[in-house]
Amino acid sequence: MYCSQEELNSRLRRVFEGAGYRRYVMSKFEEYDLYSDNRDFLASEKVLTFTDLDGRLMALKPDVTLSIVKNTRESGGIEKVYYHENVYRASGIGFKEISQAGLECIGEVDEYSVCEVLSLAAQSLMTIGESCELDISHLGLLTELIDGAGIGESAKKEVIRLMGEKNLGGLAEFLADEGAKSPLCDDIIALAKFDCDASEAPIALRKILGGKVSEESLALFCDTCEFLSEEFPSKVRVDFSTVGDLNYYSGIIFKGYVDGIPASVLSGGQYNGLMKKMKRKSRAIGFALYLDLLEPLFESSDGFDADILLIYDRSAAPKDIYSAYKNLSADGKSVLVLPDRPKALRFREVYILSRGGVRHE
Fold it and tell me: Quick one: 284 and 313 in the same domain?
């Protein structure tokens, strides 16, 4: 059974703060230029804007990561923050307020930092429910292989798009049209098909990529796979259809899934490209958990609006009603006290207070 939204928020906070991450609280508004300069990084190009009293064009926050990067100093160390914010994004014919939680690790990000963030991503999924999966891949290894095949920058983006769709036929046809070197073309297609448990990935990846990409990068990714497979058995898969925008992301990229939701509810990766674009020398990795997508689970997780409904006679004295309420809620159960039975709400138990005392219905 899934926990309630309130309990999930509390669990996530314990997970993040347990790893030493501090809460980041952002302003509702940022200057529009921050978002217009990084439209490709946003989930939607449409942004709610208004003109401030001083004449500046402001935006109602559509993203948290950009704000954190902008407001984090180059300290020479590692900055670790988490957040729980509402963002405002286009949805259908209007805008929607979306709740999301996540974290960012910015600065001198090392191998441990990457493993820690991936671990926290897996833990975040497991706070929702045990039936979950974290899919990871490595854009750096993929782009090295594509570059080795002599594929140009514009064509590279199309290769990434086709891999993200797992369109193997379209990918093979496109590579043939581009005149890519045939041995590496086969390896690119092999990566597009690659999908296995993290425990099996190191050996399989070395067969495909050994001697064709940076040995250091390959070894680090394999070490990460081994770490995750040991810490979270059968929860992590390596799937190279997990991709992102090459202008922003590099290195490891990942998505998270939970049973009952047909889309990824968590997304993250190493976004060193974004840091460079924003004229930052430091590296970064982080993820966002899209709490709005989990609403169907919250709705079906319990089914009750309160543990107990206490219906009282209108002639009863307030002190008697309150005494009955205290007795029923003494063991921590939630008790809704009303003079009449509500039509649309559900309760585990119902008690009635009359002149004769309290009786269970």
Answer: no
